[in-house]
Each structure stands twice: as C-alpha cells, then as structure tokens.
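Pilot study result, target chain (81 residues):
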Amino acid sequence: MAWTETFCCNICGKEKNEESDDWWLAWEDEISPTPQVHQPMLKITHWNNFLSHDATAKHLCGGSCAHTLLDRWLHEAYESS
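Predicted structure:
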C-alpha cells in the first residue's frame, strides 16, 4: 500500500499537488532583544518538504494567501498591543 501525504493551505484550504511551486511556509515566533521585551514575529519562507512537517508551520498556497496571513497577523498583533 502506498502512503501519500496531503498538505492544504491554512488560509483557503487548497490542496497542494506535485506541480505546485509557489507554496510558502510560515511560523509565529517571538524575539526577545532583552529579558523584559518580548516582541511577536512572523517568519515566512519558500516551501521546503522537510520543514513542511513541522507541527507549528502554516502552509500557504501562494503570495495572496501569504499576504492574507500577514494581514491577519498584523491585525491581531495590533489588537493585542
């Protein structure tokens, strides 16, 4: 029996196929330049099969969904500050 893995965009739900080449990965993180300062950070990088298995990674099917994620993240970061 063959095993296949499926990735879906966290924004629009589109399923990734083998021909897809414009997919991205994103993570929410935190930077602490000093012990008292904790600043939220969003990291985005081009698709990498190894990194795509990280449980905290968000899968994005293209620039439009990456922009949507960034917009939502910025709004949430602004609201919480």
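One observation from the pilot: Residues 24-80 form one domain. A full batch analysis is planned for the follow-on phase.
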